[in-house]
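Interim report to the steering committee. The following record documents the input for Envelope stress response membrane protein PspB (79 residues).
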Amino acid sequence: MDGDIIALILAPLIIFLVFVAPIWLILHYRSKKQVSQGLSAEEQIALQELAGKAELMSERIQTLEAILDSETPEWRNRA
């Protein structure tokens, strides 16, 4: 009876240690390596493009707010 309980515990543990744990460790450290390498060249280009678009949007918003301030001074107080 005690042998059956030990077998029920050991079998999944051995399967985990032989198959799951090594794959888990390999994938974990591979992802750590990719994170530490930083952005790729394509990702840096995309990030620069997005930053440029954000800057243009910021300028447009400032222009629109200036127009609204001159035409409707109380627009910011409306809910």
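The mean pLDDT is 89. The committee is asked to note this result when reviewing the revised timeline.
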